[in-house]
């Protein structure tokens, strides 16, 4: 039985999406940070899972499969982490592939908008960072803008150019929350609503999102994440308790230079919530 106070990090990114470290390098960092339970959750891909699993096994680190799936809800992009999914599940694979296939076109459109603002070469520049067109994300465009001196940091690029409503932004074409949760669950996974404070929703909108997530079978809320203040951790722990959801924890680590928390630095879950690993364990008796 895994204890409540496990040091878990169930949300991070590798070079398979918009992180800068390989899955194996992340496993090493997770192990060095004293993590007991680890998941790699790349955006819309399971490509790094085998490497993550093997590297974790070699280190004696307990690993669980993971993915962070983009989803659309009422005109907002919502991220849903799937933990403990079957990485070969055809329905989930198909949904993730459709998301990846849409990425080059969206990046091209955003690069054109940046070109109109006098920023040349953004598509090719982002592609150098991403390594493959299907991985292209706003993060790679942002890294290019920092590289060419247009902004000081990735965060500054998002503030000025790449967030919704800013001149470089192009809306995505993600599947809806219902379809995403359905595929995560069909693949045997637990669906976790990621970093709820990041969506900048009003209290009413947030309650509507939580209702929708519950209605379609969502099972857990990311209570501890690098962008939550201590007050937000308490606030979302209360939501998890009230809604009967489990609680998850993850750094959302992308890069040593860009991320607020290193792997394993996110505070542990507060008392009184059901840790998401209790659900993962209940699902797969050992
Ligand atoms: P995309 O999937 O192409 O829309 O890109 C989403 C990614 O952009 C997220 O996973 C984050 O890594 C990054 N991102 C979004 N907003 C911000 C922000 N304000 N500051 C830094 N990175 C951000
Ligand atoms: Mn990201
Ligand atoms: Mn996210
Ligand atoms: Mn993430």
Report on this structure.
The protein is of the alpha/beta class and 286 residues long. It folds into 2 domains: 8-95 and 175-278, Metal-dependent hydrolases (TIM Barrel, Alpha-Beta Barrel), CATH 3.20.20.140; 101-162, DNA polymerase, domain 1. It is 42% helix and 13% strand. It has 10 helices and 8 strands. It has helices spanning 23-32, 49-59, 90-116, 122-130, 138-147, 154-162, 177-186, 203-215, 230-243, 276-283; strands at 8-9, 37-38, 62-63, 66-73, 76-83, 190-193, 220-225, 246-250. Strands 4-5-6-7-8 form a 5-stranded mixed beta sheet. It has a 3-stranded parallel beta sheet with strand order 1-2-3, with helices on one face. Helix 1 (23-32) runs parallel beside helix 2 (49-59) and helix 5 crosses helix 6 (154-162). It binds adenosine monophosphate (AMP) and manganese (II) ion (3 copies). The site of one manganese (II) ion has 4 residues, from loops.
Sheet having the most strands: 5 strands, mixed
Mean pLDDT: 96
Contiguous runs where pLDDT drops below 50 for at least 5 residues: none
Bound ligands, named by name, code or SMILES: adenosine monophosphate, manganese (II) ion
- For this structure, the CATH topology of the largest domain is TIM Barrel
User: What series of H and E elements makes up the topology?
Assistant: EHEHEEEHHHHHEHEHEH
Number of helical regions? 10
CATH homologous superfamily (4th level) name of the largest domain: Metal-dependent hydrolases
SS elements, strand count: 8
**Structural class by helix and strand composition:** alpha/beta
N→C terminal distance: 10 Å
Radius of gyration: 18 Å
The largest beta-sheet arranges its strands as 4-5-6-7-8
Binned, the helix content reads: 40-55%
The second-level CATH architecture of the largest domain is: Alpha-Beta Barrel
- Percent strand equals 5-15%
């Amino acid at each position: 039985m895994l204890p409540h106070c496990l040091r878990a990090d169930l949300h991070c990114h590798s070079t398979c999406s918009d992180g800068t470290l390989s899955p194996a390098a992340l496993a090493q960092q997770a192990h060095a940070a004293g993590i007991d339970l680890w998941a790699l959750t790349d955006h819309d891909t399971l490509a790094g899972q085998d490497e993550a699993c093997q590297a974790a096994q070699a280190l004696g680190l307990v690993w669980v499969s993971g993915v962070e799936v983009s989803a659309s809800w009422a005109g907002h992009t919502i991220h849903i982490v799937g933990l403990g999914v079957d990485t070969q599940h055809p329905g989930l694979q198909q949904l993730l592939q459709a998301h990846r296939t849409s990425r080059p076109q969206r990046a091209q459109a955003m690069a054109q908008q940046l070109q109109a603002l006098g920023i040349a070469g953004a598509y090719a520049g982002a592609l150098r960072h991403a390594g493959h067109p299907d991985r292209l994300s706003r993060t790679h465009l942002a890294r290019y803008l920092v590289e060419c001196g247009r902004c000081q940091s990735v965060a500054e690029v998002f503030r000025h150019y790449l967030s919704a409503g800013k001149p470089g932004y192009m809306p995505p074409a993600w599947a809806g929350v219902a379809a995403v949760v359905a595929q995560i669950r069909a693949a045997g996974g637990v669906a976790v609503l990621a970093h709820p404070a990041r969506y900048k929703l009003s209290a009413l909108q947030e309650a509507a999102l939580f209702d929708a997530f519950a209605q379609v079978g969502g099972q857990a809320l990311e209570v501890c994440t690098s962008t939550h203040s201590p007050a937000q951790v308490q606030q979302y722990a209360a939501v998890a308790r009230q809604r009967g959801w489990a609680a998850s924890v993850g750094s959302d680590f992308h890069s040593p230079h860009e991320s607020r928390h290193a792997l394993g630095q996110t505070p542990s879950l507060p008392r009184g919530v059901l840790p998401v690993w209790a659900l993962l364990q209940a699902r797969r008796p050992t």
